[in-house]
Amino acid sequence: MTIYQNLIAGEWTGAEAVENINPSDTKEVVGLYASGSAADTRNAIAAAKAAFPAWSRSGIWERHVILKKAGDEIMARKDELGALLAREEGKTLPEAIGETIRASQIFEFFAGEALRLAGEVVPSVRPNIGVEITREPLGVIGIITPWNFPIAIPAWKIAPALCYGNTIVFKPAELVPGCSWAIVDILNRAGLPKGVLNLVMGKGSIVGQTMLDSPDLAGITFTGSVGTGKRVAVSSIEHHRKIQLEMGGKNPMVVLDDADLSVAVEAAANSAFFSTGQRCTASSRLIVTEGIHDRFVAAMTEKLKTLNVDHALKTGTHIGPVVDERQLKTDTDYIEIGKKEGAKLAFGGELISRDTPGFYLQPTLFTEATNQMRISREEIFGPVASVIRVKDYEEALAVANDTPFGLSSGIATTSLKHATHFKRNAEAGMVMVNLPTAGVDFHVPFGGRKGSSYGSREQGKYAAEFFTTVKTAYTLA
Ligand code: NAD
Predict the structure, then answer these.
(1) What domains, with CATH codes, occur in the chain?
(2) 176 lines ligand 1 (CB under 6 A)
(3) pTM (2 decimals)?
(4) What family is this (predicted)?
């Protein structure tokens, strides 16, 4: 089998490789992907550092053309790349194609942003002096990504980094190197000069840690777990490095008595269980007021009966497998914890077998949960959600905000008063009214508060905040 190699200083390299396994069918090897060493990582950082002076002064048209070409190729290959994504990560084919389209749109957006770079010219408070405020590239950026959005998250970090003139060392998650390799290959062929974008696939403890230990990375943009995020933060203070961290969530979805029941159930089922609950914006706490509680639970249970869990590529599959054995064990451990804590298992909770060997778990719904239970406080990151019964809107809001996280927060209601109040008072970076907590646009800021995020927002024009540094220049007239 061919080895998909790392790209370092414009050369494909690497003989050590690991198998990329399909979670829908563990007999299928999606491909062999290089596993980089600490030396490879150091070489990649050196290459990015050497390429920075020229790329940081490259013309905006050159950047535009490369980003646009990449976006166009991703869109043209959306079915093929979507199938690769579904095979390596396990989300359903329609979800995977949707994510691929989003990656393409992100490249298109930043291709446009490259042509819109601008500064400010302002008067000085002193006579005969002019003031210019400009944004300059930051330097070498380390990009570290998780497994759950194998093409969109790399896209939303790589595209702005290149757009604003930075060079890159990119380390994707070990579980899903395929889509990352594909977009690096596309960008490389689109005309990026050698060393501007370096790919080092491999272990977090080796490749990632070498990046953290390097004094040559001006910034690290990281998405992943809270634990790894903290390591990125601590090492970055030592190296005086800019960071952007997107981490876990325990997102609430409030359902009020006045909600349209079908809207609430559609939003909650999507939030909690689509993409196998493996979205940082997934809702795992369904906070439901007394008057609608029993009807909501009954309708959710009926809805869950209609969702097919099966091979990600199979037509009619609503929920693919869990990503790997380790995550499956985490999910089933939490299901046991929930039972022991006294929550009632209202639906699911069982492993299921299908035609192919894979990590298949029923969508699992607990009721009679409290917000103090571990299943309500800790991120599970699987198809497991609990219903927490509350008296009224005020209690619902208090419970929604009573969490160490603050990524996304949703409400189902027909009351303008409550929707308006919730949008202002939900302690989250993103708020959804009558919509799932997951599912966001690519051209507007993405990110959270509290334990979910640290640093400036990703995506849209807000991305400039992280990927550039501001200069103020004074000139005597
Ligand atoms: P993870 O922290 O285990 O891994 C993330 C990345 O960090 C991987 O590439 C991994 O190899 C790397 N890494 C691991 N150890 C490292 C080290 N010592 N030094 C440097 N890098 C290291 O997270 P995961 O399991 O891949 O992803 C799941 C988590 O990601 C969940 O907590 C989820 O909520 C979060 N997530 C957050 C967002 C968001 O935008 N907030 C989006 C997607 C996923």
Answers:
(1) 3-247+452-476 (3.40.605.10), 251-433 (3.40.309.10)
(2) no
(3) 0.97
(4) Belongs to the aldehyde dehydrogenase family.
